[in-house]
Amino acid sequence: MAKIEDYGFLSDTQTAALVSREGSVDWLCFPRFDSGACFAALLGDEKNGRWTIQPECEVQRSSRRYRGDTLILETTFETAEGAVRLIDFMPPRGNNPDIVRIVEGVRGKMRMRMQLVIRFEYGDIVPWVRKCQGGLEAIAGPNALVLHTPVTTHGENLTTVAEFDIAEGQRVPFVLTWFRSHEEPPHEIDAEHALRDTEAFWTDWTNRCQYQGKWREAVTRSLITLKGLTFAPTGGIVAAPTTSLPEQIGGVRNWDYRYCWLRDATFTLLAFMRSGYVEEACAWRKWLLRAIAGSPSQMQIMYGVRGERRLPEMELTWLSGYQNSKPVRIGNAASNQFQLDVYGEVMSSMYHAHRAGITLDDPEWQLQKALIEFLETRWTEPDEGIWEVRGGRKHFTHSKMMAWLAFQRAVQLVDDAKIDAPEQVTRWKRIAEQIHREVCERGYNTKVKAFTQYYGSDALDASILMMPMVGFLPPEDERVRNTIAAVERELLVDGFVLRYKPQEENVDGLPGNEGVFLPCSFWLVNCLDLVGRKQEARQMFERLLTLRNDLGLLSEEYDPRTKRHLGNFPQAFSHLALVNAADFLTQGWEAIHSHTTPQATRGAQRAAGAKS
Asked: Checking phi first, is residue 388 left (phi over 0); if not, alpha (psi -120 to 50) or beta?
């Protein structure tokens, strides 16, 4: 099975596919990110569904790239007989999603083989396949796919195969389209027209990027990836397009990340707004407000792409798991957890949106005020924390710090937006001071000389690196510097940062270990710069960039020992952290948090006007 980093990423901004170096689509969910997969070989084997197009003879060399600043993937296979290029993409769509594959002869002439193994519902359901006018249909339950190609296909052991020759200058298209089984199949799209439209879509989008710093290539590719993880109809952004890619090969730390986390709000808004993508920031903010609307006591840490609240977790026992990493899970039970930090992230995202010129209206303010008033009654309680532990609630230091941030941002928002709320502001300032005092007294361990994972703990947690970044304490504070030093001393592996040590105090309630956590490693970059170690910060940032695969993609974690990516892929949190770290190193943390560009403000005003 391919390594996690050996996959390429395709998206139509509503769902996504993963394509291996060998030209196999091993993961594809239709019609949404969180729909059942029709190709699930990624989490099992070829019998669970995949789509391969490869030369029949031995491949001597292969290479791949994205075409310019797009999500059009080009894979070139070289053999003794010649060379062929496989062009894969997903056109931004109307009603029916497509995945398009164009085989292009580059040199010589060679024999190709296509094998299509469709298995609906995560590799479990064998469809009824029939040839019909204009294509080959596969139907099971509510789902249907239709394949259009000029190549003759035939059935073979419950799969669809084709053999064909390709010569230099020839192009052969394959178009696979999803539709509802009770409806008529959609009309065939023209693959070449779709290719031109898709290239224009991505090129136009990336041309709007305003980042002009040293790391433009890395930032642009990360922003494209984030756009590809966006569910365009609502503006929600999934954490990753996959489920159950392991945090330890063969382990049980396998989770479904095809949902939208509120935690990403601040980072997403900053990444998009600072790069000139204000419409995307506006869409994400509106998704956020719709998702959390209702009783503050019912706010969740994550939602479905349309704001769904019910995300029941279950195990798919028929799938063997990525490299035997079981169980394979869909849904996420962490959606029912209580996590204090999300209140800080929500209020911070609303504050930064206002500073960028995104209009705050009264109903939105009333919703935010209700959240803060609810937090007044709950911030003293233990929670499951940023890492969604399953070992019981504790008074996590990071959670309390982010509760402080919620009140701090609420006060700043009232002041900046000139809202009349003197009584609330007085009360919120008092609570913020109380939380700050408590964290400093109970969260700092004088024996360890660091802020620790939770009150009374000796364990370290890299989430505390956020402390100087959110302004809880200044970077010159001795306790901040001690904490950074402790993280470097205890949580670094080959120069990269662990979230925490999983078996220390068994806080997460799970067996096994995990890799270094890439977002936390980018946070350390920011902290090093803040404390004046600027050369070290840039060197570490450059090292982190080398962990990206050849297509510029990052997973959630990395194993320095085996040099392999771990966790779901590609991971929004990692790419968000990359973009914000690049911005920070280019402009400084105070600049990107305290100010907005005139272009961003004008863009926000245009976006707000267009949606009003």
From this structure: left
